Amino acid sequence: MRQKLKIAGWVAIGALTGALTTVSLQTAARANMAPLPLEELQQLAAVFSMVKSDYVEPVDEKKLISDAITGMVASLDPHSQYYDKKTFKEFREGTTGRFVGVGIEITQEEGLIKIVSPIEGSPAFRGGIKSGDMITKIDDTVVKGLSLNDAVKRMRGEPGTKVMLTIYRKDENRTFPVNIIREEIKTQSVKGKVVEPGYGWIRLSQFQERSVDDFAKKLEEIYKQEPKLKGVVLDLRNDPGGLLDAAVAVSAVFLPENVNVVSTNGQLAESKFVYKASPEFYRRSSGSDPIARLHQATKGIYRTVPLVVLVNEGSASASEIVAGALQDHKRATIMGSQTFGKGSVQTVRQLGPDTALKITTARYYTPSGRSIQAKGIVPDVLLDDTAEGSPFAILRMREADLDKHLESGQGNAAKDKAQDKEREKAREEAMKRLEEESKKPNNERRPPEFGSDKDFQLEQALKRLKGQPVLASKTQTERPAEKKDK
Questions:
Q1: The one catalytic residue among 24, 117, 271, 317
Q2: What is the mean pLDDT of residues 141-159?
Q3: Engineering a disulfide at 206: which of 189, 236, 238, 241 sits with its beta carbon 3.0 to 4.6 angstroms away?
Q4: Within 262-378, where are the H helices?
Q5: Whole-angstrom Cα distance, residue 312 to residue 151?
Q6: Dihedral angle at the C-alpha atoms of 294, 297, 302, 306, nearest 10 degrees?
Q7: What's the pLDDT tens digit per position in 288-299?
Q8: How do residues 420-435 score in pLDDT, each as one tens digit?
């Protein structure tokens, strides 16, 4: 039986941890263990014994071993991780789109926790937390020096319990506390509407278990409202990824049946696989096929209707699988900015009933054989964020910027020092402009909502569908995959 891969580019714990991941969930560890280096293991045992007997105060030996495993795995790449009892439970919750937490997407910056965005309707959202806010303390614990996982653990808890977050808001130059009552967060990953007669817009913010059903239902609604569709915009901007079968299903909505969507390749035989736009590659063991139902209800219109896909630097993992498949099959025009470049597969193997190891086991490839690891999908039409340009794009992190990132495996050009200097100069200029922007009133700084009538990139996508001239970027260029320093 083929291996069932799952991806998670995830909001597990009420927080986007920044480790945009692609995973295969397996219920047991491998039986064929590799030969063990006995001399090195003896050294490890000796160190463990010395720490246990000689350290200034008693240590928890279970925690010592857990920390050793954590450090070993963390040295591999940014996406491999050891899950203890709590984090494994949180990981599994994160793929369902339901979890208990405060409702924020976060990343780590300069030792602090930075809010990427509060989830709409969540306790954090209602508490007034904003994108760009920094968390300096969680209850009485100073965040500086904590790992991202440790910080996230402290924000998790049981429904109805309280947590106090101390927030630093740079643009107002003030620090203040926000008391939040934890609750179950239900994320809605699909939005869509008829934006104007003949044209639909559908947005996926994450590929979760419920996303395929919600996606199919939303497209049915759009068709019922506008049966004479002339074009559709699929919006994957800032979508960090999700479940692989969901990515295959979304691709199958727009592609001919049974064409290749994505392939994976690694050391293990089970990691070498091709996924196709066919029900057996995305349908779960029980239940009907929502994609077949959609095609029947809409007379197959979504396989032929003109299509534009919007992406940006925040589009990663499963988003890149969909964009790459539609681009390679020439089914859609990809527009926006070069994507994140998360092209590796992580396998999650349970080590016991409630612990697991997430380890990178393969790279994934578009139908034409491109590895997008550390490079991303390059749009057919590069677009700026606004009509005035993309002044802050240089500040956005991509896979190639992550420490210890995996290379594409297809050869990379060495870093150009002159190019590095230019990028550093651009970063400095962007930071100065960001400082100036922070002095403006809030209503002038807030970026237009995706899907609104002020969404510049959506406006360009609609022009493309209508055959009208598009205001393409004059400054963006393809960013090559970067070779990491040895």
A1: 317
A2: 86
A3: 189
A4: 290-297, 318-328
A5: 28
A6: -150
A7: 899 999 999 999
A8: 566 666 666 766 666 6
DSSP 3-state percent helix, strand, coil across the chain (nearest 5):
30, 25, 45
For residues 226 and 370, membership in a common domain is answered with yes
Instruction: Indicate the Cα dihedral angle 30, 35, 39, 43, nearest 10°.
Output: -10
Q: Which residues are 5's β-sheet partners?
A: none
Q: Determine phi and psi for 88, rounding to 5 degrees.
A: -70, -40
Q: Could you tell me which residues come within 8 angstroms of residue 37 by beta carbon, excluding any fewer than 6 positions away?
A: none
Specify the CATH number for the domain of residue 399: 3.90.226.10
Residue at token pair 């079968």: 245
4 within domain boundaries: no
* Residue 333 structure tokens: 């025009």
How does residue 13 score in pLDDT terms, banded at 50, 70 and 90? Answer: very low
CB 112 within 8 A of CB 127: no
pLDDT for position 462: 98
Catalytic option among 6, 114, 137, 342: 342
Task: Record the tokens describing residue 70, joined without a space.
Answer: 């954590």
- pTM for this predicted structure: 0.76
Per-residue pLDDT band for 478 (boundaries 50, 70, 90) equals: confident
For residue 285, with 0-12 CB atoms within 10 Å meaning exposed, 13-18 middle and 19 or more buried, which class applies? exposed
Lowest mean pLDDT among 123-137, 302-316, 382-396: 382-396
| β-bridge pairing 81-83 and 174-181 | unpaired
Is 285 labeled as catalytic in the residue annotation?
Answer: no
Going by C-alpha positions, the residue among 236, 238, 11, 237 that lies closest to residue 122 is: 11
CA angle 278, 279, 285 (to 5 degrees): 150
The rounded mean pLDDT for the chain is 84
- 431-471 per-position pLDDT tens digit: 666 666 655 654 555 567 899 999 999 999 999 999 999 99
Range of the domain at 309: 190-342+365-466
Task: Please check whether residue 327 is in contact with residue 339, taking contact to mean a CB–CB distance below 8 angstroms.
Answer: no
The three-class DSSP label of residue 102 is coil
Measured from the Cβ of residue 27, the count of other Cβ atoms closer than 10 Å reads 8
Assess whether 379 and 301 both reside in one domain: yes
Residues 33-71: tens digit of each pLDDT: 678 899 999 999 999 999 999 999 999 999 999 999 999
**Could you tell me whether strands 307-311 and 11-12 are parallel, antiparallel, or unpaired per DSSP bridges?**
unpaired
**Which is catalytic among the residues 213, 214, 235, 328?**
328
Interior/surface letters 215-238, b for 16+ CB within 10 angstroms, e for the rest = bbbbbbebbeebeebebbbbbbbb
Same domain, 330 and 443: yes
Active site residue 171: no
CB 218 within 8 A of CB 191: yes
Residue 419: C-alpha distances to residues 269, 415, 480 (Å):
40, 8, 11
Active site residue 276: no
